[in-house]
Amino acid sequence: MEEERDIRDDVPCSSITSESVVRFGTGGAIWGLCIGLYDSRKNGLTGFSRASYVVKSVGKLGLQCGFFAGIYTGTQCGVERYRRKKDMLNASIAGAVSGAAIAIKTRSLTQVVGMAVLVSGITSAANVARTN
Q: Is the whole model's pTM more than 0.90, yes or no?
């Protein structure tokens, strides 16, 4: 009996990362559209100012989600291939790196470390839930 192979073993990390950026970036843009329309209406914006607010929201959330997904997926794939193991540690490392990358703009070491630990824990738990 032949052992099952994961298709991710044959696909380069750059392709996996690109796909992840596009998927999550699109999801973030859709979320930005929804929340942008809601917030602009809540703030009483109309006309061009409302449209501008929504476009900024779509772009900002699309880029943030795509950026996070690209860092997470690229790191996880790279660590997995480097270690030649598929386990929870890959998700933990990738979560810590992507969480730190998102929080780095705060320039606060405590927030960077806190976000790294938080995202690492969430991604590790999600990985355990996915494999069980």
A: no
